[in-house]
Amino acid sequence: MNKIEHIGIAVKSLKDSCVLFEKLLGAPHYKIEEVALEAVNTAFFKAGDNKVELLEATNPNSAIAKFIEKKGEGVHHIAFAVSNIETEIERLKNEGFTVLNEQPKRGADNKLVAFLHPKTTNGVLIELCQDIKD
Q: What is the pTM of this model?
């Protein structure tokens, strides 16, 4: 794990939350993107070297919609940047963590992503992120 890549926050309204986070961080988002595979719209903000991702469900059956229904808006996941996501998935499986998707998939912000089940990470959903090299 190289660093915290971003913190993901589940929100009911991306439009309203973008206004709030622009005021909070003193800067506008740098990207809005739909991730159809996950049924989510995202907005990314920079805060120094760190990033915040806002996630809004586009489908009432999506993971984000279910998260908000169960827990309300708030921190959804912490993402860590990795150099080689396949190697990191294998390492973490060997360490006893439950990987939710053993093959990385395309995520937002030009990343390959994989997730660790929160039951094996003290209740925190962990995302692994690797930059996609074009």
A: 0.92
CA distances from 29 to 59, 65, 119 (A): 23, 22, 32
Query: Please, is 108 exposed, middle or buried when counting C-beta atoms within 10 Å of its C-beta (0-12, 13-18, 19+)?
Result: buried
Residue 84's Cβ-count burial label (10 Å; 0-12, 13-18, 19+) is exposed
The residues, ordered by sequence, that sit 6+ positions from 111 with a Cβ below 8 Å of its Cβ are 5, 129, 130, 131, 132
81-129 per-position pLDDT tens digit = 999 999 999 999 999 999 998 899 999 999 999 999 999 999 999 999 9
What is the set of domains in the chain, with CATH numbers? 3-131 (3.10.180.10)
Q: Which two tokens stand for residue 112?
A: 């390959």
C-beta of residue 50 within 8 angstroms of C-beta of residue 5: no
